[in-house]
Structures are given as C-alpha cells and as structure tokens.
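Technical annex, item 7. During the second reporting period the consortium partners agreed on a shared format for inverse folding records so that results from different sites could be compared directly. Each record opens with the tokenized structure and is followed by the designed sequence. A conforming record, contributed by the partner at site C, is shown below for reference.
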C-alpha cells in the first residue's frame, strides 16, 4: 500500500494512493486512522514530504562500496548521526545551496525506514513490527563543512532543504535486496542495491532503538551507495539549475531541483 501526504484544499492530508486516485483518510497515520470515504484525483493535489518527522537518524558508511570509495574501513558497528528536522522537503521542492557553503554540496540516495510505533530495545527479529513502511531520501551534504571545516557533521547535514523525502510511504516493501540509484540531470551517478549494506534495515532499527527511543513518524536514513560526487574524478557537486532524482525500486522516484540561496 502507498500512503501519501498531500496538500488538499490548502491543508495537509494523508491518503492511500492508487494510481491517479487518492483515497483520503481521517485520523493519525501513526495512531488510529480510517478511510474518510472520499476520493480525489491526484491532479487536484500536491505531494508533500510523506511525514513531518520528530527525529531523523542517519547512518554513515553503511554500503561497502561507499566506504571503499572514501578510503574508510568497513565499520564494526553502525555509524550514527542526526539531521535537523528543518531540513525536510518533499517532492519537487528545491534543494537550496546555502550562501554559507554553496560550492561542495553533494547528493546521497538512501532507502529510508519510517517508524510506525514507539521503539525501544527492539530485538532484531521483531524490528519489522515497528516499521510502518519505506520511502526515498536524499542525504544532501555540504562536504566542505563535513570534511574540512567542522569536527562533526551536524551543520553539513542539516542546512534547510538538505533532507528531501518522498514521494510516499510504501508499506509492503522487502528491503533486503532493493535497487537504489541517483540521476543528476539525467546522468546515472549511483546504482547499487541494499545487498551491499553492511547492516540491514532490521539490524539498524534494533541497534538505534537500543541507543535512543524511536517515536512514531521518525525516519531512519540507512546510508548511501557508492558513486557520490566527492569521490569522483573530477568531483561532481550540485549546482544551481540541476535536477537530482533518487529512485528506489518498489517505491518510486523523488525528484528535486537545485537552486542557489537568494
């Protein structure tokens, strides 16, 4: 099932998406909800980010080829960091290159886990019970801040618009071997699948829940494959006027234009 968050009649609403039709729902997607008994055409709506998360927990170096391209060893435990919730945008919204750090902004395609219920100390074999579904994400990163200017990643990962999510939540995906890719201006930049992950989605949900309580509506960004811009020769960074698309098989395509901050 695909669940989208849409703008309808000026308000955000959740809906079950079926082709070009939206079945509106009432209530709390992360609590009790029910069909509203009303359908509307997609043409009368606009897709928003599929949730407004209270937490964004991200994982670094979780694809073997990505660790290798950066000259880093395979981690023995998940490398966790946080992104500010201010960074969330939805499909079609622009990634803004900040005036503070406009020159080395990079893309990172990710499979994103959407947490459906409060998760604390979750056993790995029960992790699926705490997952509502999956969406696409782009862990946009200012590499100069991340790698040279700061001693931690918070600023580099949390500029406004640096966490595109969407286009919707897919509740029936098996994340164990899913293809993940990025196109930049129509050119394929990343193309891998989750079989290259160091830690699976189930392992990550369990591990993170032992570090901190995951609340409903939180998202877990599970790492990016090889092919990021900073590791290329020559390096490739996002520029004003670019279009970047993250695609995850079984979910869909998340496309965002790139703009320079005014």
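Designed sequence (site C submission):
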């Amino acid at each position: 099932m695909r669940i989208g968050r849409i703008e309808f009649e000026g308000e955000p609403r959740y809906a079950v998406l079926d082709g070009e039709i939206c079945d509106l729902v009432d209530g709390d997607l992360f609590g009790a909800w029910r069909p509203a008994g009303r359908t509307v055409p997609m043409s009368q709506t606009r897709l928003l980010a599929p949730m407004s998360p209270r937490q964004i927990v991200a994982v670094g170096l979780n694809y073997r080829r990505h660790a290798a391209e950066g000259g880093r060893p395979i981690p023995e435990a998940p490398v966790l960091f946080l992104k500010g919730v201010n960074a969330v945008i939805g499909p079609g919204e622009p990634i803004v290159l900040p005036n503070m750090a406009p020159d080395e902004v990079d893309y990172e395609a990710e499979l994103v886990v959407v947490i459906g219920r409060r998760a604390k100390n979750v056993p790995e074999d029960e992790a699926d019970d705490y997952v509502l579904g999956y969406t696409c994400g782009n862990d946009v990163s200012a590499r100069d801040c991340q790698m040279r200017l700061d001693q931690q990643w918070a600023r580099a990962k949390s500029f406004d618009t640096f966490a595109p999510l969407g286009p919707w939540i897919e509740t029936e995906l098996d994340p164990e071997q899913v293809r993940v890719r990025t196109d930049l201006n129509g050119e394929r930049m990343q193309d891998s699948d989750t079989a290259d992950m160091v830690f699976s989605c189930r392992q990550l949900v369990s591990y993170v829940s032992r570090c901190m309580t995951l609340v409903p509506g939180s998202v877990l960004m599970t790492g990016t494959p090889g092919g990021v811009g900073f590791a290329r020769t020559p390096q490739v960074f996002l520029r004003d006027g670019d279009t970047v698309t993250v695609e995850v098989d079984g979910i869909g395509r998340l496309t965002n234009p790139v703009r320079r901050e005014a």
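The chain has two domains: 2-47, 56-260. DSSP finds four helices and 19 strands in the chain. All partners now use this format for quarterly exchanges.
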